Input
Amino acid sequence: MVEDIFRRKADEQRWRAERRLPPGQALTQRFPVLHYGPVPRVDLSTWDFRIWGEVEQPLRFTWEEFNRLPHTRVTLDIHCVTRWSKLDTVWEGVSVRTLVDLGLLKLKPTARYVVQHAEYGFTANLPLEVVLAENFLLATHYNGEPLTPEHGFPLRGVVGAIPGREDLKVPYFWKGAKWLRGLEFLAEDRPGFWEQAGYHNEADVWKEQRYA
Output
């Protein structure tokens, strides 16, 4: 046990030196379950995903239609505001950037922010530049398996760090909403659930922007 602790500390020093472990974070091999409220029960036969707001045309997808969209796989280091980090996690799902590039999603010039709408009225906000970046995904799978209910089945927003890509903004993991049901594109920013409760609006992991 003592050897495991020293090994983990050595790993943390190495990853911190390689700029993969942000300040104040500790490595974990587990995937902690953290959320507010109960885990929703999902009926995929009635489930839908909507996109609206500052878009040329609102969109709605059934679960079957959503899964026919082009899928992307990305490896991310994820960092929770509660101070755990998990490296080299693999996610699969739909990239918002891909939807825009293919012309499936047409944004108005006024679109600058995005609110993720999830079950029970939960929301999480992000700048458009983050949602369109390679390190944000509408994820259906984690490490090759469908999401579990506790981790957001059937769909969640995921944001993290792509190793070696220091050009990308990296918010804390709460900025990706579990049990996602829609994206609302906005001209002005609107704080999400945790931001309204006192968490930092930008949530940059490298600046330790945990609380407002």
Remarks:
- Helices lie at 2-17, 63-67, 96-101, 128-131, 193-196.
- The chain is about 15% helix and 30% strand.
